């Protein structure tokens, strides 16, 4: 498992759902986050979906569904040879390097482009408010 993945457990009611706890070690997301990975029944031919159960301030996370919109998990860019460990590594990259051109929250990408320091401060403040300070 990539560094920062603290636990992975299959949902006892659904083998296609994994529950994760991650602890990014980079600003502005230092904290503990719960995630849910929904693995498509046709995996590896269809990509999994990652949802933040812990709210996160990130321009590439859909605010309605909390789905992480990683480029590598889009249907048109997904490769069946991609392993789940690579998906998790790309998640940590995604946290460190937001993609304003793929933003699902235009107000956050506008802030990031206009004032990157302000964006990072807002994300850090949000993380302090919403993320856990200890693994659960």
Describe the structure.
This protein is α+β, with helices and mostly antiparallel strands. The protein has a single domain, classed as Ubiquitin Conjugating Enzyme (Roll), CATH 3.10.110. It contains three helices and four strands. The protein has a four-stranded antiparallel beta sheet with strand order 1-2-3-4, with no helix packed on it. The protein is globular.
Quick description:
The protein is an alpha+beta fold. The chain is built from 3 helices and 4 strands; from the N terminus they run E-E-E-E-H-H-H. This is UBIQUITIN_CONJUGAT_2 domain-containing protein.
Strand order of the largest sheet: 1-2-3-4
Described by the principal axes of the CA atoms, the overall outline is: globular
CATH superfamily descriptor: Ubiquitin Conjugating Enzyme
> What CATH architecture label applies?
Roll
- Give me the number of helical elements: 3
The pLDDT mean sits at 95
Percent range for β-strand residues: 15-25%
Keywords:
136 residues, alpha+beta, Ubiquitin Conjugating Enzyme, four-stranded antiparallel beta sheet, 3 helices, 4 strands
